[in-house]
Write the structure tokens for this entry.
Amino acid sequence: MKHGRPVVLLIALALTVAACGSDEAASSEVVLMTHGSFAVSEGVLEAFTDETGVSVTVLEAGDAGAMVNQAILTKDNPVADVLYGIDNTFLSRAQDEDLFVPYRSPALDRVSRDLHVPGDAVTPVDVGYVCVNIDLMELERRNITAPSNLADLTDPTYGGTFVVEDPTTSSPGLAFLLATISRFGEDGAYPWQAYWKDLVANDALIVPGWEQAYYGEFSGGSGEGDRPIVVSYATSPVAEVYFSDLATAPTAIVDDGCFLQIEYAGILRGTEAEPAARHLVDFLLSTTFQNDIPLNMFVYPVNEDAQLPAVFLEHAVYPNEPVVMDPATIDGNRERWLAEWAAAVR
Amino acid sequence: MLDVIDLTVRFGPTTAVDGANLTVEDRSIHALMGPSGSGKSTMLRAIAGLERPVAGDITWNGQSMLGVPTHRRDFGLMFQEYALFPHRTVGGNVAFGLRMRGVDAPSVARRVEEILELVGLPGYQGRSVGTLSGGERQRVALARTLAPRPRLVLLDEPLGALDRSLRERLMIEMRSVFEAVEATVLYVTHDRDEAFTIADRVAVIRDGRIVADDPPEDLWNHPPDGWTARFIGLENLLPADVLARIDLLPPTPEATAGVVPPESVVFRPDGQQSGLVVGSHFRGGVFRVEVDLGAGADLVAWSGVGLETGTVARFDVTADRVTWFAD
Amino acid sequence: MRRWTLLLVGAIPAVFLAYFFVYPLVTILYTGLVAEGRFATSAFREILVSPSIRGVAWFTLWQALLSTVLTVALGLPAAYVFARYRFPGRSVLRSLTLVPFVLPTMVVGVAFLAVLGPGSPFGVNLRGTIWAILIAHVFYNLAIVIRGVGAFWEQIDPHIEEAARTLGAGAWRVFRHVTLPLLRPAILSSAALIFLFSFTSFGVILVLGDLRHATLEVEIWRQATAFLRLDLASALAILQLVGVTVLLIVYGKARDRRAAELPLRPPSETARTPRTWGEWAVVVSTLGMLGIVVVTPLAVLVGRSLRADGGLALTNYANLFDPPRASALFVPPVDAIVNTLRFAIPAVLIASGIGMLAAVVIVRARGRSGRVFDSVLMLPLGTSAVTIGFGFLVALDEPIDLRASLLLIPVAHALVAIPFVVRSTVPVMESIQHRLREAAAVLGASPRQAWREVDLPLVARALAVAAMFAFAISVGEFGATSFIARPATATIPVAIFRLLSRPGTFGEAMAMSVVLMSITAVAALGIEGVRGSRSGGV
């Protein structure tokens, strides 16, 4: 038998094997922290390196909430130089923690002023919309007309047809909650809490995450379930067309109460590579990166010079009156709203 | 040569070995005999280095072994239940000690073959130890102990788990194996026949102390005390006042009991002594006769002819064959 | 073993645990609860007065207890059948039972909803009920009983049971009075692991539970990432730790009785083909149970991965290997496999090495210190992953900045896997007859050689089982991996997550899950093979 090697050696070996992957070139490097949904085509980040001589290490930090927490917890000694993917629902908290070094990229001139942040603490990079999606075929089969607004969803016609994500565990869920708060208001005869009570009374199903809602319960497109109405993204129909190679979208959005999500990039305070970090922010706004955004992350670029791919031009819809909410308002009320929501749906 | 000097081993408050002394000469077979709980196994384990003595010394050729860990003492120990390695074959078990000594593979194979042949299990190398009979396991354990040629072989009740007929056969076999390999052996047993058959010298241990250490015949003929006499199974250990009835008087006042060897009693019609025959049993060639000496004490003797129970028998005793001691 | 050697051997796992578990944990709890030098007692007040948190705590406890009892009850017959009988397909089936262990909860959720949801072929709708959660916990953890108890059971000499029978005891009484006491340490070990897994259950609860069913683990995550209330999350993490500690104390007391020393037999000598109709009935009904609980959901996944283009096709697999779209979204399966193994192999080595050192110390240091060490090693299993993950971030920046190091991934996996190594090897090591080590010593083996020649081969089967779990833990792990991963190092679960996070790639996600299942099954079979060839021989 030949299992005589001392255990200590094995451990040392294991550590070495594991460490092999982590020795990236440290000379001229910038670390980009982002969330798990980050995706980019091959060659795009390499273009940045070719241009500036700086290599990019991408650090995925879980979902959006986990990423913001990580950035806050490491603010005295940041792990990364640039944070990308923080959205308007978390922005205010990050600014309270003074996470970012303000920077105004020259490329920001090509971005709509509506998206700019006062003081340029962070730079907008992409936008998306959380919208109610419908399964066109299933609604037709059931002989139900498509809902035209959020209020319709409490109508008995749509009983047992709607699935929505829990706002305390899902970011589209939170976006949809904020949309209902904006649409129905806090006071008045029919406040948002009353709307949610009616949704639940109308047999709306609340699930913890987007995956369960879309793949598990939604009947449309690649969904596996039996509910024809779901909270998803404005670009979900485009993705259906793109990945399943279809001529027309099997699903569509309800153009009411779409919540605008803006994703920002910011230079983390405490970085030792600020010049490189600035270059990277510039690059995120460059057409090279912006053109690559739609088909990788299924959100819209913010640079007005960016070219949308054909499938977007053909199938993508920009909601008419999206709900836009001030980050400070969101942060100031988040905890109360979530608690009131939990009380309303229970 | 092994010397055990004033060895004391304690387990908490109990003293298992209490100042024991013992010498095992090179190429001799020494039995260590005692009833269960007498400390014989503990003494053996202490010699092997498996128990730590609190006092005394264990030396080999004059060098103390106390600081030497078990695996460097080069003492082989065969356990009572054999402790064969269940995950190894017969060959793997026997080769173990050789491998630990860094012997090269071809030599190991040769020695394993040789020693298995010696213990009567030729070709058993590939067998799983789980499939062996009790006697075969015993032989494998013996082969495993002897294979590395330890300078001292310690055996702890090596035949204890076997049935009687197998034991008697293996006793003889083991003695010839030990002689063949010129081993120096310390053999622990509670069985007199085993000790007497196999050993050149027999030591008796009682409550952690060595009370006798003699060649078997000497021990048999001159036990040092009544306890030993009883323990080795001598018959006719009788109190002095009973012996006085047949005119056997103690040489000193301290002697309170004596052993009368059965063969020193001769029945003859004109014998000086007499007694009532209370038992007479044929024992193959001779009769074992019990004669009542009064006060509930019987004298056992051998007779060429059967004597009838209830009759009075006359006999003589050779007085100088009696061993006296203070009981 | 001498005292100082023991201390030296114990120092390695102790330092590992202190640096990678205790230190990060204490730091993050301190960060969460102490603001500007003041201890946030309000957080504790808040969780103590909240009826909903009380409800969560209560639910966490009882669902974990119930899951444990159910899993052990269903697992014991299966462990028995695999340990004692030989039948066709035995090793394949036994390898399959490990597969659930690695599957991402989201994927399992899909399979469960297909089997037990509104469209169930069995006509039951368990969606959102406690039953869905309990059955899923059984599905995930059954392998722990089958392997953990089975590895021990198959080495117990059947003669012991047969002897009891010849003394006139009936089958049940033999089990109750002979087998069960012998198995007790192994059962307790498995039960403790299952309890900890269920107590800290996260994914299953999220996917199959609903608003009424949340564990402390889910609540900690919710407080930390949705409410950004690190103080509440920390207070809850402490509450969770207290619960786990109480359990571990109870467990420590229960296993106070050491395992009996037993003459262990090679498994090849204890298993046989069923002989009577009764024995066949036991085997078949147990396998039927496994079929329903384990095989059906897996079959659903395989079936779903093959559904494409309106029929059965390999399109999803073809798309995986040759993506029709040039999106970086798709991690090529071969890359994902390589990345997964790159973390899994070091994780297995670290967990086995450190776990074995710890097991040696626990077994040799009889008495309290060993037991306390044993329990502390199990704490990482009962600690919220979010807490440890954040702990790494705040604690491991000095002296070497390990926070962004890929090394942390196998380390995090090893932390979870070490209790498996310890729990499956300690009962076997305790039951090794001390006499055998003495026999090795008198034959000239030094303590280290004796350990290597006697303990290690006897413990090898248990260690192989534990290594298999360590491998499965690492291969299936998503949380820590996604926390520290880079796009270039995406593992299979990360790749599945990406496929599941957009519309249109569900079939590919299922296909990738089948790839994950296959790797696990192949690895389990491989280890099975290694174990087979180990017994006997020099």
